[in-house]
Design brief:
The complex is a heterodimer of chains A (427) and B (314).
Chain A lengths: L2 E13 H5 L5 H13 L9 E13 L3 E6 L5 H8 L7 E7 L2 E2 L14 H11 L4 H15 L14 H13 L5 E5 L7 H16 L3 E5 L3 H7 L2 E6 L2 E7 H11 L6 E3 L12 E9 L8 E3 L4 E9 L7 E8 L2 E7 L12 E9 L7 E13 L2 E7 L4 E6 L34 H4 L1
Parallel strand pairs in A: 3-7, 3-8, 5-6, 6-7, 12-19
Antiparallel strand pairs in A: 1-2, 1-4, 8-9, 10-11, 11-13, 13-16, 14-15, 14-17, 17-18, 17-19
Helix pairs in contact in A: 4-5, 4-6, 5-6
Chain B lengths: L2 H4 L13 E2 L22 E4 L10 H6 L1 H18 L6 H20 L9 H28 L1 H6 L6 H28 L11 H25 L3 H16 L10 H8 L2 H14 L6 H25 L3 H4 L1
Antiparallel strand pairs in B: 1-2
Helix pairs in contact in B: 3-7, 4-5, 4-7, 5-7, 5-8, 5-9, 5-11, 7-8, 8-11, 8-12, 11-12
Classes of the chains: A alpha/beta (427), B mainly alpha (314).
């Protein structure tokens, strides 16, 4: 087998100061230049982070490799280095063949130029030869479905036409190696879907694919092999299902269930301590993956150690890094002090509420002391699970299969009024 | 190849990549080569932190020549599409500027004309100065103006300032009829074969503009004050380049001072080559050319050494 991508000890260092202040102050820049010129160094003010650290892997021709990891694990940096947008600090990589990334779709399109002119411009930017573009022009035009507008300035295009033409150019680049970053992909859901579709097509025709995504299902489905990155290092490399499973177990604490055997070590104070927490389905089984339409429970087992003020179980639900909601059990059972003992409280999150993706939960037990809330414990990202929409048409996204934005995805009641069109309406 | 991480601590981002080696067969079409055969068709791209010494990777630029011409073509087409008068501006701008100079400096201030009809002298200075001013402005803005490209696609970044100094050459050529008309009116035709040197002097202007453009475009990535600095600089520059007077009319001491400015060499040289003016002093010209080359390499060095950071900081 031929090696298409050979990466050896690739490292990339960023300076934090650099990331924060894209524009340095004038004074800073001048002293920076001065130090560069005189060869003096006073860089002590910078903090450094390694976005990539000694990343080594080989990707064989025709294989599809997924790259997963938390935000900031270095996935996007890896792609940026491999597409040469940014340069590594150390190490080396060899890439055999033409690289396409779908990142650059529509890059360089100029509104004043006609469709035809933009195809030449965009094609040249993506690395096509002029003769090659000329040869593929009819195909590109047809695929985009904008034949009659090729001599119209792109600024008069609808956004749909614009994207279609841009995508068509990129799709005809025929890269031997495709680097895709779903996280960075531009455009609307429809467009991202096309990108994924195109990727699958290319994968099936023996292209080499390197795919960065948060979508575990897509990784497991499209890739034979996956890398798990954490803090710039490869922590796992193997068959994609295995790596995805490992990632899901280790991310955000302890996967879908977590138990503290030793009560002394468990989170809590002298009144209440957490014993275990897990994500459960309606039938009581632990769940890593949850159907978007199904209710999901957060089961919190805790012990009350002594007589004290009333305690109330509470959860904080985090989706996509943002707090989706907080919820407490407001039942009057909890308004009286609970006698010492073991309690199990399960919060049921209804189906058709959470959106797709990784959800993390902070379980807590609190005492209400308005206007304050006293936490006996609150474990940040103690458990997590994935919400998935199988796309059978009965969730709020209907038969649409693209990305559906939002922290929540409720299924709403809709009313509808239909009437005869009056003459005044049709004009 | 771990130089980048160990040897050079102070340079967090070292320069990268060694360009692309074209494979035996330019493109795609992968025959199913049996195991252990020679390298497959297609290019091999090597990505690595490069040497400490910035250099212009000429083979790589050559590889990307089609993109260079496409960028030049884009800028020319877009500019003429966006303006109502289009191509006419390439004639109107130098003509108006020259007219103002002729009235203010020729009539009222009575500047020395160096033995040439004053309008011919002025237009011979205004055209190359216009070229230099546009080149400098365009190239300094080139990285920031093409932000979308820089953060999304790889190509040698030097193409951007480079294409930005080629585009105004089109304006220069379009503006030439103004000069030719004046030459015809005043009968100041080139003396002979020295006219062949004219493109060479324009090349010097290009090299100087590119050098400064490299420097300022890299600077402009970090802080956009450059945008405000350039017009100030460009207002003073004509006075220091002999646009509205002939340098050889000045005291020798000042001639040498002004020779440090490559544009004074360019303008004096062009007047000699095209308008049959007095030949510029050879050593002053050598100094001017030397300064242009120095500016070019200094600008290039700064550009190349900050290049790896463009996409991270822009």
């Amino acid at each position: 087998m031929t090696i298409a991508v050979d990466v050896e000890r690739l490292s990339k260092r960023y300076r934090i100061g650099e990331l924060q202040a894209a524009y340095g102050t004038l004074r800073e820049s001048v002293s920076h230049l001065a130090s560069r010129v005189t060869g003096k160094q006073h860089r002590s003010g910078y903090e450094e982070i390694w976005a990539l650290r000694d990343v080594t892997f080989k990707l064989e021709e025709g294989n599809a490799l997924g790259v997963i990891g938390r935000n900031g694990a270095g996935k996007s940096t890896l792609l940026k280095v491999l597409t040469r947008i940014t340069t590594p600090t150390g190490g080396r990589a060899e890439i055999r063949g033409r690289v396409g990334s779908l990142l650059e779709v529509g890059t360089g399109f100029h509104p004043e130029l006609t469709g035809r002119e933009n195809v030449y411009l965009n094609g040249a930017i993506l690395g096509m030869k002029r003769s090659e573009i000329r040869r593929k022009l009819p195909e590109i035009t047809e695929f985009a479905g904008v034949e009659q507008f090729m001599d119209t300035p792109v600024k008069r295009y609808s956004s749909g036409m614009h994207v279609r033409l841009a995508f068509s150019v990129a799709a005809h680049l025929e890269p031997e190696i495709l680097l895709v970053d779903e996280v960075l992909a531009v455009g609307d859901a429809e467009f991202q879907k096309r990108c994924l579709g195109r990727m699958e097509d290319l994968g099936n025709t023996g292209r080499t694919v390197l795919f960065v995504s948060h979508n575990m299902q897509a990784i497991a489905q499209l890739c034979d092999r996956a890398l798990l990155l954490d803090e710039g290092r490869i922590v796992r490399d193997g068959p994609s299902e295995e790596v995805v499973a490992h990632y899901l177990q280790t991310t955000a604490g302890a996967g879908s269930s977590r138990t503290w055997e030793d009560l002394g070590e468990a989170p809590g104070d002298d009144l209440a301590r957490l014993r275990s927490v897990r994500i459960v389905r309606a039938d009581g089984t632990t769940a890593d993956y949850v159907d978007v339409r199904e209710p999901v429970g957060v089961e919190i087992a805790f012990r009350v150690l002594r007589h004290g003020p009333p305690v109330v179980p509470k959860i904080k639900v985090i989706a996509g890094g943002r707090i989706a909601f907080n919820a407490m059990d407001i039942d009057t059972r909890w308004s009286e002090p609970s006698p010492p003992g073991n309690y199990v409280a399960t919060a049921w999150i209804p189906g058709n509420l959470l959106n797709e993706g990784l959800i993390t939960v902070d379980p807590a037990v609190v005492s209400i002391d308005s206007p304050k809330l006293h936490h006996h414990f609150s474990v940040h990202e103690a458990v997590s699970f994935h919400v998935q929409d199988p796309g059978e048409g009965d969730s709020s996204r209907g038969i649409f299969t693209g990305q559906w934005r939002g922290v929540v995805r409720p299924l709403l009641e809709w009313t509808r009024v239909a009437g005869e069109a009056r003459d005044s309406d049709s004009n | 190849m771990s130089r980048g991480s160990s040897a050079v601590d102070e340079r967090t981002e070292d320069l990268a990549l060694d360009g692309e080696r074209p494979g035996p067969d330019g493109l795609s079409a992968r025959p199913s080569a049996p195991e252990g055969t020679v390298a497959p068709p297609g290019r091999i791209t090597v990505i690595r932190p490069a040497s400490r010494w910035p250099r212009l990777d000429v083979p790589e630029l050559w590889h990307y020549r089609e993109l260079l011409w496409t960028l030049v073509w884009r800028d020319v087409v877009v500019r003429y599409k966006q303006t109502f008068l289009g191509v006419a501006w390439a004639i109107l701008v130098p003509a108006f500027t020259a007219l103002v100079y002729i009235v203010v400096f020729g009539k009222f201030a009575d500047f020395p004309d160096g033995g040439l009809p004053y309008p011919a002298l002025v237009i011979g200075g205004v055209l190359p100065m216009q070229y230099f001013a546009s080149s400098l402005t365009n190239s300094s803005m080139s990285l920031a103006a093409n932000l979308q490209l820089v953060t999304k696609v790889y190509f040698p970044r030097a193409l951007l300032p480079l294409s930005a100094v080629i585009v105004p050459m089109v304006d220069f050529v379009v503006g030439l009829p103004v000069l030719i008309v004046l030459m015809w009116v005043y009968g100041t035709w080139p003396g002979g074969s020295e006219a062949l040197f004219a493109p060479l002097f324009m090349l010097i202007a290009l090299i100087a503009a590119l050098g400064v453009g490299f420097f300022l475009s890299a600077l402009n990535v970090r802080y956009r004050d450059v945008r405000y600095m350039i017009p100030v600089f460009l207002q003073v520059l004509p006075l220091l380049s002999g646009v509205m007077y002939a340098i050889h009319d000045l005291p020798t001491k000042w001639q040498w001072v002004l020779a440090l400015n490559p544009m004074s060499t360019v303008i004096a040289g062009l007047r000699w080559a095209v308008l049959d003016a007095v030949a510029p002093d050879l050593w002053q010209s050598v100094l001017g050319v030397g300064m242009a080359v120095l500016l070019f390499f200094a600008g290039l060095a700064i550009f190349r050494s900050s290049e790896p950071r463009f996409a991270d900081t822009i």
